Amino acid sequence: MENPQPKCNQYSDFYFVTNPLYIVDFYSDAPCRSIEFSGCASIFQDSDVKVSGVKMEHSDPSPLKRFVQAKKKISDVFEQLLLYVQEGSEFVNDTCNNESLEQIAHKSQLNQIKEYSKKLSTIQEVLARRHMKVAFFGRTSNGKSTVINAMLRDRVLPSGIGHTTNCFLSVEGTDEDKAFLKTEGSEEEKSIKTVNQLAHALHMDESLDAGCLVKVFWPKSKCALLRDDLLDSWIDKFCVDADVFVLVANSESTLMNTEKHFFHKVNEKLSKPNVFILNNRWDASAAEPEYMEDVRKQHTDRCVSFLVEELKVVDRAQAPNRIFFVSAKEVLNSRMQRAQGMPETGGALAEGFQERLKEFQSFERSFEAKGGNDVRLEAARGFNLLIFELSRLQQIQALNPLLSECISHSAVKTKFEQHTITAKQITETVKDVMDQINIAAAEQRVVSLEEKDYLIDRLDFVRNQLNLLIQDIKKKIKLITEEVENQVSNAMAEEICRLSVLIDEFRSDFHPSPQVLNMYKSSLLQHIEQGMGKNLAFRCSDAVNASVQNSQHDMIELVKPLLPSAVQHQLPMLVPSRKFELSYDLNCATLCADFQENIEFQFSLGWTALVHRFLGPVNAKRALTLLDHNLQLTAPSTPLAPVAAPQTQICRAPAQSQEELMLSMVNNLASLTSRTSMSLVIVGGVVWRSVGWRLIALSMSLYGVLYLYERLTWTTKAKERTLKKQFVEYATEKLQMIISFTSSNCSQQVQQEIASTFARLCQQVDVTEKDLEREIQRLSDKIQKLETVQNRSKVLRHKASSLEEQLEDFSSQYLRHDLKSIDD
């Protein structure tokens, strides 16, 4: 079929010039073809519009002016609504992305509002469009082009019989650059360059039986439909802004799933689209009039079920008004006959033509009621899209003369009612979202306030209890240290009393030489320090360690209520697992560094020994000191030298008489004492005269024998015993001096151990206090943010209410008024 050439048609006072429009058809069961046909664009000479001899001035209060006013008002409302939804989307997005505001807004709400924003943008584009758009959909050869041509009363769109085939086709994509096909039962690849060549090849191949399968492999690079499922994107691109959808069905068959699937997709994209179902080729029913009503009822029931139950776009009472049974070809031929001045019923027409013509005219009136300023018609099938644009003036001239009247009464309702309903639904939904956010924020604010108050009370409790606990622990530490000090003091006193036993246990090489003697004393000091430390530890350490552990355990139990449960289990880690050991640190080497031993021989009945024995160490020392002082005073007046000489002479001359010897001894004794010791001499004389010289001699002999015995027994062992004895006396005195110091040192160790443990516990309490302070601050910030969210959600909710009022005013002013006019 040749492409129509550009031409100029003249209708009454209006002139139309052709404007070529490029169309590409995609067929699932037919070859792909490219067609150019003439669409019409209007150019009119004056500013007045004439319809059926009636002149309408633009200044008249016409329905068209009302339509313009309604369009301006609804456009303003949708502009505000879009800004409102975008503001709400930004608000919900900020709330969702705020980590401190969990469970206030959800991603689903954000996605929902974003979808509303996209939908409103699309509706805005539809409202801004200066023409109405109608999409015709149906399978190939159902008569979409013929229906449009019948409405236009001329063969404007190409229609007719094209190439067909008697076999089933399976079209698959291939990555190769060339197209080819395979027939059933053969692996031979038949090369084809174009779809027309494919159709011709199938048509001319007589070897193909009816019902055989032919697989067509078409390059993916040449047809995007073979790459992806583009139904959604196709609907978004061409049909999402359509005002009316017309399903052109074949009345000789029934509705197919492909046709239903398309409208289900449309229904997902648009809320309650305006759908008409046109059962074309109804003239075929004239051949079997006895089944006409049954078939009509069957088609009607299925169409009503599809519109009401599946799409849910109309109710059951309105559905029959959306279903028509027509023969577009008959109407087209009839109107073309009339346009040529010939009778409408001329030519071969099937029986019942007038009824089908009235049905088509009824469809036209219903369709025209969906019109506006301009009409854009789209004819579509599964993979077939035809686009045709016709201006409002051409539509008035070419279509029914009553089109203007229909537009006047229902254009506002048809054009804006569904969008208004959608806007109300969107506004209501967004308002509900704001209410949900407001309620969630209010609930969380109440919870946060309660939690904050609880944490403040908790913080005050922790601080007060910690202060009380510090005072209590100080008292307990003082009691424990005093107890330890007394215990160590008593134990050390007992060990000092047993010092002689400890020293007797010491065994080491002894020699009077200074070097060996110094080593001996060092070892002795080390032995004493180790022995006393061991004995003190045996007496005190276990009890002190038990006391320390008990006090630490008591402190943990007292601190536990001040800490969170998660931290309470970690408290035993703050207490050292090692056993507490006291360090007594006697430091005997320093303490006894000035010890000077005296291991020279001293007769036990000597003057010094007797004085020490009878007067005691302290008094003996005083007496000897006084004696030395008296000797110094009497030395100048006493003739010591003559006395000493006779003494020497007495020792050397045993022949002297006993009286002289006694007198010499008395004189020597008198010289060693003072003048006050004359009484002793007198006593000695009395004894001499009383007992006689023999007894005195015997006593002196015994005294000498005793002296000799002691002198002979003064061995190294005796010297060692003397040194130990002297050291016991010396160390006892020194250790007595450090009892208080050592016990105090031990108590300080215990105090430090307990205090350090309590300090670690207090540090953990301080960490808890800081955590509470941070949590309180976080809750304060969160409460402030929640209040901000509440205030903003309230503002957005009030905006939604204002928009609802505007939409309700628009509905009351335009939609309900127009509906009442139509009913009248």
UniProtKB/TrEMBL annotation:
GO terms for biological process: mitochondrial fusion; mitochondrion localization. GO terms for cellular component: mitochondrial outer membrane. Its main location: mitochondrion. Keywords: Coiled coil, GTP-binding, Hydrolase, Membrane, Mitochondrion, Mitochondrion outer membrane, Nucleotide-binding, Transmembrane, Transmembrane helix, Ubl conjugation. The keyword GTP-binding applies. InterPro entries: Dynamin_N, Fzo/mitofusin_HR2, G_DYNAMIN_dom, Mitofusin_fam, P-loop_NTPase. It is found in: Mitochondrion outer membrane. Pfam families: Dynamin_N, Fzo_mitofusin. CDD domains: DLP_2. One of its GO terms (molecular function) is GTP binding. Residues 463-490, 762-813 form a coiled coil. Residues 128-364 form the Dynamin-type G domain. It is a multi-pass membrane protein. This is Dynamin-type G domain-containing protein. It comes from Danionella cerebrum.
